[in-house]
Write a structure and sequence with these properties.
Layout: E1 10-11, E2 13-15, E3 18-20, E4 27-31, E5 38-43, H1 47-62, H2 70-86, H3 88-99, H4 103-121, E6 129-132, E7 140-148, E8 151-155, H5 161-164, H6 166-175, E9 178-182, H7 189-201, E10 208-210, H8 215-224, E11 230-234, H9 237-247, E12 253-257, E13 263-266, H10 272-284, E14 296-300, H11 304-316, H12 336-352, E15 355-358, E16 376-379, H13 386-389, E17 396-402, H14 405-412, E18 422-424, H15 428-437, E19 444-445, E20 464-465, H16 470-475, E21 478-486
Parallel strand pairs: 1-5, 8-9, 8-11, 9-10, 11-12, 13-14, 13-18, 14-17, 16-17, 18-19
Antiparallel strand pairs: 2-3, 4-5, 6-7, 7-21, 12-20, 15-16
The structure holds adenosine-5'-diphosphate.
Length: 488
């Protein structure tokens, strides 16, 4: 396997179209989670670098970029699209090396990124002027303008940055905003390569800036910065609380997509040939490091035993290994910290009295230097157990029996989260009732995890607010201004 020439060496910060050293002069390692090897050195940006990037983004926002027409921004997005498509294999390989996902998944992510860019390229006329009727005396014309908000801070997670970065870059370029992006310290490389491609596509200097660094300093500085108008964040509830606090200084607009503990409900009448692999991969995909994962798997009591057996059989067919190896279904977890967290929850589940039906162990042998864990099934779980209430972010399924539709809905909604949910049934009215009843931002019926940028997704309850994808997302990068014009 050829390592792309981009991987290796020392990476800098991308500010104002230039690659610059961080003020601190410090750096940290990008680690390949499949073997623990260092891939590159990453610049450790801090508050002073965020200051520079935010000032640069402000200047760019007010400069010639503000006069680009919708058609010009559309052409730009199409040039970005062409470059991302031309470099899809390279980007996927960088992503797999840096965060571990199977290469087939990373390629899927690159394709989805392309589809997302194409969607945002259709949204470049969203900043608009509309006229309204009014009941005012005299000759008054009333309009509303939608104008770009300004400088956006994008705080990116590590579980699929090759996709996540476009939820910020896409609407930023479509609306004429500018951005400072802070990738997650555990997976920066694909975002840095994307920055190079954006420049090659002709994105003006300062429109998209990338400051790598740790959450506690670069991230916190971006979230609190008075020169940033809006923050788009994907990550944990704990960090979101800090970001909400930091937003108070200049009353920043926020978009928060947080964790989940999504219910996936299998009724006795479901087609188990579909439901078993579908529900299992709804958790095991990306080694469980997906915010939408359907980790609370509710199974109707009549088929509980059969379902668990089939789940064990399916789980046994999965191949865990380096994402570069052909046919691998699950790559490593992102870091040793994440591995400890997942194994810690396996311990908790066992101590809580759940039955460990599959997996649960770290993998050794040739995989001993990476952060690999077996796909894991807990059966006989109770919804109040810690493993059923807290987000594990690993390939761990909790199977919970239920009796009827009302019982399933009561259990499904007994969670502080509301991101995703699924239902497997052949009965139309059950499907309808359950999809209406689940309190979450997305529900899948007889499938799990499908997404389309034109539809978008978002959270409810403690899974956050603000929709990603769709025209609504683009709208949230604009502010509205009413204009009263006396034309007498
Ligand atoms: P995880 O614990 O899974 O890494 P986080 O929510 O901590 O999830 O991380 C998501 C993103 O938020 C990362 O880019 C991280 O660097 C960033 N981050 C972490 N802490 C803060 C903070 N206090 N303020 C802003 N961003 C942060």
């Amino acid at each position: 396997m050829m390592v792309p020439p981009f991987v290796g060496g020392s990476k800098k910060l991308f500010i104002g179209g230039k690659w610059v050293e961080p003020v601190s002069g410090k750096a940290f390692d990008a680690i390949n989670p499949a073997d623990g090897q260092v891939l590159a050195r990453i610049a450790q940006g801090e508050a002073a670098d965020i200051d520079k990037a935010a000032a640069t983004a402000r200047t760019a926002f007010e400069g010639p970029w503000s006069r680009w027409t919708p058609v010009e921004r559309q052409r730009l997005l199409l040039r970005v699209l062409a470059l991302v498509e031309a470099h899809a294999d390279e980007l996927a390989l960088i992503e797999t090396l840096d965060m571990g996902a199977p290469l087939a998944r990373s390629k899927g992510l690159a394709n989805f990124a392309a589809q997302t860019i194409l969607f945002y390229s259709t949204q470049t006329a969203a900043a608009s002027v509309t006229t309204h009727q009014n009941s005012l005396p005299g000759h008054m014309m009333t309009l509303s303008h939608k104008a770009p908000l300004g400088v956006v801070g994008g705080i990116i997670p590590w579980n699929g940055p090759l996709m996540s970065v476009w939820w910020v870059v896409g609407p930023t370029l479509a609306t004429g905003c500018t951005a400072v992006i802070k990738p997650a310290e555990d997976a920066c490389l694909s975002t840095l390569r994307v920055a190079e491609l954006l420049q090659e596509a002709g994105v003006p200097d300062g429109v998209i800036n990338v400051v790598t660094g740790y959450g506690a300093d670069a991230g916190a500085a971006l979230a609190a910065h008075p020169g940033v108008d809006r923050v788009a964040f994907t990550g944990s509830v704990e960090t979101a609380r800090r970001i909400i606090g930091a937003s108070a200084g200049n009353i920043k607009r926020l978009q928060l997509e947080l964790g989940g503990k999504s219910p996936d409900i299998v009724f006795a009448d479901a087609d188990l040939n579909l439901a078993v692999p579908g529900a299992a991969m709804g958790v095991y995909g990306n080694s469980g490091q997906v915010c939408l994962a359907g980790t609370r798997l509710f199974v109707q009591r009549g088929i509980h035993e059969e379902f668990v057996t089939r789940l064990q059989q399916f789980t046994a067919t999965l191949k865990v290994g380096s994402g570069l190896e052909p046919g691998v279904n699950l790559g490593p977890l992102i870091s040793s910290r994440q591995l400890d967290r997942v194994l810690g929850y396996v311990d908790i589940g066992t101590r809580e009295g759940a039955t460990l039906a599959s997996g649960g162990k770290r993998l050794g042998g040739t995989l001993a230097n990476g952060y690999f864990v077996e796909p894991t099934v807990f059966a006989g779980v109770h919804n109040q157990m810690k493993i059923a209430q807290e987000e594990i972010f690993g390939p761990v399924i909790s199977v919970i029996p239920f009796d009827d539709t009302d019982d399933a809905l009561r259990l499904a909604n007994d969670t502080p989260f509301g991101l995703g949910g699924g239902v497997w049934t052949r009965d139309l009215s059950t499907a309808h009732k359950v999809s209406q009843g689940i309190k979450s931002g997305t529900v899948w019926i007889n499938c799990y995890g499908a997404l389309d940028p034109n539809v978008g997704f978002g959270g409810y309850k403690m899974s956050g607010y603000g929709w990603k994808g769709s025209a609504e997302h683009v709208d949230s990068f604009l502010y509205r201004k009413a204009v009263y014009m006396n034309v007498a």
